[in-house]
Specification:
Blueprint lengths: L2 H32 L7 H8 L3 H7 L3 H20 L8 H17 L1
Amino acid sequence: MDDQKQGNKNAAKRKRHTKTEDNITRAFLALAQKKPVSKITVSDICREAGIHRTTFYMHYMDVADLMEKMESQMYFLLMDIFAGEEDGINHHGIEKLFSVYLRAKRIL
């Protein structure tokens, strides 16, 4: 297989991987609206996301691992939004954060 075909194949695989993780995250957040996070199980998430448990475990070790990775992603998103502002106020960052919030609200 030549390099371009391999690159396209890898890009498609990364896209599927990201889409699956987004699906799992949406399922978790939807469940968190219905019951306490401590009561959410892998089976609950899989049922909500329409995936098999093996798919979940390809991405995460358990619910705590999912939550830790979500927290890390949020931290880096916030750092990216607010980094580098001299006056301490990043108006564009605040607008971006608000738009992320509104998109998340629509997902749920």
